[in-house]
Amino acid sequence: MESGAGKHWTEEEVKALLSVWSEKNIRKQLHGTLRNKGIFIYIAKRLQELGVCRDWKQCRAKYKNLKYEYRTVKYAHNSGDVSKTMKFFHDLDAILRYEPVTQLAAEENGRCSATETQLNTSPTTESTQ
């Protein structure tokens, strides 16, 4: 399968990316890691094993785009606009629901620092994944 930089991802390719992304160790490594080239090289190799020929840059770009689109739809739903939808929303919700959200907290000296809080976690749902 020929995959260029501008080639759109097929549904099967996105499903394969989501299956790799949904693995607990991958989710853990991706969260909060700024320099994540190595993780995406690993993801690209795993996708190759599944028959998807994408390089690490394409995987990272698709990851970022899916995450952005998911958050846009999630924000719209939380604001009462249920007309916004996206393919794979429920898959992404299952992956991203347990990701800690970075929030700003004011420090005594007036500067802000990032703190992490984990949303929607429960021992029963976490252990089933």
TrEMBL record:
InterPro entries: Myb_DNA-bind_4. Residues 108-129 are annotated as: Disordered. Residues 112-129 have a biased composition (Polar residues). Residues 7-95 form the Myb/SANT-like DNA-binding domain. This is ZSC20 protein. The gene is Zscan20.
